[in-house]
Amino acid sequence: MKHGRLTIGTVLLGALAAGTLAAAPVASAVEPTTATLSFDCGSFGSGEATLTATQDGTAATISVSTSAITSPFPISENSVSSTLALTRNGSDTATFTGNANPAIPAGGAVTSGPLNGTVAAGDSLEAKSLTVVVFGITVTCNATSPQNPGPFVF
């Protein structure tokens, strides 16, 4: 009889442990995953940008597509160097950098990313500027609106 109680107790304990593991919180991910804002790029133009963020632990990426900068000539893949500066938690600065971009046709909007950066749990990031370098020409764009629907929270 003791053996039967031990087996039932072991099964119940195992089921309870499995239920606890199943109910454990899943690793947090960035929210929202997509945000929009407006950029002013001086004499190069102004317009809306879409930012798309992903997270894998402390590593994060943000891709940028903006109509604020269009290319007067075709740009080959992986030839745009970009730095996105974001306000971290309202006071600090985080930067995401990279040289990844798809091929951009003449007259096409500049798309850059994924840009790589590091985050900590609870970081709240909101874009403040984007610097793009193409063929030695540097374009700096400043945010003229807050991110919509809000900052990225990791």
Judged by helices, strands and strand pairing, the structural class is mainly beta
Low-confidence stretches: 3-27
Helix content: 10-25%
Compute the number of strand runs. 9
Mean pLDDT over all positions: 86
Kindly provide the radius of gyration, computed on alpha-carbon positions and rounded to a whole number of angstroms. Answer: 23 Å
Q: Which word captures the global form?
A: globular
* Major sheet description: 9 strands, antiparallel
By DSSP (H or I, 4+ residues per run), the number of helices equals 1
Order of helices and strands: HEEEEEEEEE
For the record, give the distance between the C-alpha atoms at the N and C termini, rounded to a whole number: 53 Å
* Beta-strand content: over 45%
Structure, explained:
The protein has 154 residues and is mainly β. The chain is built from one helix and nine strands. The protein has one helix spanning 2-23; strands at residues 34-40, 46-56, 59-70, 81-88, 92-98, 109-118, 124-134, 137-143, 152-153. Strands 1, 2, 3, 4, 5, 6, 7, 8 and 9 form a nine-stranded antiparallel sheet that branches. Strand 4 (81-88) and strand 5 form a beta hairpin. The longest helix is centred in the N-terminal third of the chain and has 22 residues, at 2-23. It is globular, with a radius of gyration of 23 Å. The termini are far apart.
